[in-house]
Amino acid sequence: MTLAVEARGVEKRYGTRQVLRGVDLDARRGEVLCLLGPNAAGKTTTVEILEGFTSADAGAVRVLGLDPAGRPPALLERIGVVLQECGFPRHLRVAELLGAWRGYYLSPRPLAELLDVAELREERDTLVRRLSGGQRRRLDFALALAGDPDLMFLDEPTTGFDLDARQRCWTVIGNLRSLGKTILLTTHQLDEAERLSDRVAILSGGRIQMTGTPRALARAAEAPTRICFAVPEPLRRGEIGQPEGMELSISDGRACGTARDASSALRTLLAWAAECGAGGLDELTVTPPGLEEAYRSIVGPAGTESR
Amino acid sequence: MTRLAAVHSAARAPGPRARLLRLAAYQARLEQRAFWRNPEYAVLTFALPLVLLLVLGATIADHLQPVTNVRQVTLFVPGMLAFGLIVAAYANLASRIAVLRSDGVLKRIAATPLPPAAYLGGQLASTCVTTALIAAATVALGAVAFGAVPRPGGVPALLLGLGLGTVCLAALALAVSAGIPSAEAAGPITMASYLPFAILSGVFSTTLVLPGWLTRGLEGFPVLALVDVLRAGYAPGPHSFPASDLAVLAVWALLGVVLARRFFRWQP
Prior knowledge:
A: alpha/beta, Rossmann fold, six-stranded mixed beta sheet
C-alpha cells in the first residue's frame, strides 16, 4: 500500500452546479502533492470529501486505506487537517490549546516539538486571540500535527498573507515535509505549487487535467521554450529580415521568440545569424517551459493567479 | 509504525469509558478556564440575575402575597434562581455553541478523534459548574439581603429541581443551537425563545395573574415547571412533593437530548 490517497471518478453537485465531474487523484506516501486550480475549481470540495466532511455523489475514495465517509476515529487518528478558514477557542494560551489537542490523540507528538516545527516557541504562553494572522496559521499547522498524523491536508495555507507570513508558512511546511509526512496541499498560487510540491495535480473543469512533477507537466503541456538574445546590429538597423519560422518580438534591446522544438529553432537562428553577418547571438538565453506555461495551457489566462 | 504505537498506547490506556470521562473532565476544565478569562462575559452572566434580585427584590421587600400572606420576596428568590439557570444553562450555552460552530471551532474539533460525547459532555459539565455557582450565589444573596431561605423540608425538591432543570435547559440549548443559522442570529433567537416563557411563567413577578387556559398551556413547558419546583422549595407551609413538575422537566430533558442527537451539527 504505497498510496496515501486514492480517489476514482469522484463527482459532487451543489444544487444545479456540478463541481466535480469525475476526479481521479493519487497521493503517494511521503510526497507533497499540490492540488492546483483556479478559485471555485472544487479544490476545497475535493479535500473535504477526502477529510470526510462532505460526501461524494459518486466515485470511490480511500484515505490511508480507509473510507473517510463518516470520519471514522481510526482515520482521524492518522490525519491532520488544516482547514481553509477556521476559528480557535480564543481564550486559551497556545500551549494549553496544543496540550488539549495532544490529549485528543492516542499517540501525540511532544509539545516542545510542535512548538518547534510551527516556530511558535516564543508564543507558547500567548493567548490565542492575541496572535497575528500568520501565527494563527502556524498554530493551525501545530494543531494538525498534534496527533503525529501520517497524512496532512493543508487547504490554501497561505492565501491572504503578506510575503513574510507566507515565507514562514513555507518554512513550516518544509519542516512538516522533512518529518516525512504525506502532504496534500491546495493552492491557486503557482509559485507556491512550484516551490513546495513534489507533484502537482491541476484541477479544472471538475476534473484533474494533469498530474506530475512541475517539470513533467510543463513537458506534457507541450508549452514552447522561450529563446531570447540581444538584438543583432544588422537587424536593429533593418538591414536584414526576421529569421524564417520564428516570430521575434523585440523590446528593450532584446529579441524573444518561442519554439516547440528548441534545438532545431536554435540551429535555424544560428544559421540565420551567420548568414546575415550578425555573427553569434549575444546574451542568448533559452528558458524551458515551467509550471506557469503548463497551467496557462490548461486553465487559460483567465484562471491564472499569481502574487 | 504509528499505527502500532497507537495500538500499544490504547492497550496501556484504561478502558474507553474511563478515557471518555477523563477527556470530558479535561474539556470541562478547559471551558471553565476560558470562561473566567473572559471577565465581561463571566461577570455579566453572574450579574444579571443577582442585580435583578437586589433591585426588584428591594421594591417588594415588605409586600405580602394576597390570600396566603407569604412574603413576596420569599417567592421572588426562586424566580431569580430559575432566571439564573435559564441564562447560564440555556441562553449562554445555545448562543455560545452557535458561535463556536459559525467560527469553525466545532469543525476543527470534528476533524480530531475526540469523541463527540467527550466534547459535549465537557461543555455540559462546565455549564453545570457555572450554573451551580450562580444558583449558590443567588440563594446566598436572597438569604443575606432579604432573609429568604428555603423551607427545610423543601431542600431535596429544590436541589432536584436545580439539577434536573440545568440538565433539561442545557439539553434544549444544544438542540436549539442546531437551528441557529449564524453567529449574529444567536442572541436574538435564544432571547426570543426564553423571554416570553420567563415573563409569562412569573419569573419576574410573584403576583402575575393569567387566564386559566394560558396557565394550563404553560404548565406543559419547562420554564413554568422549573419555577413551580423551585417555589415549592421556598414557600412555607406543608407542600406535596412537586412530582408532576419534575416529570415535565425530565420529559423535556429527554426531548432535548433526542433532538440534540438528531440535529446537532459540527459544520457551519
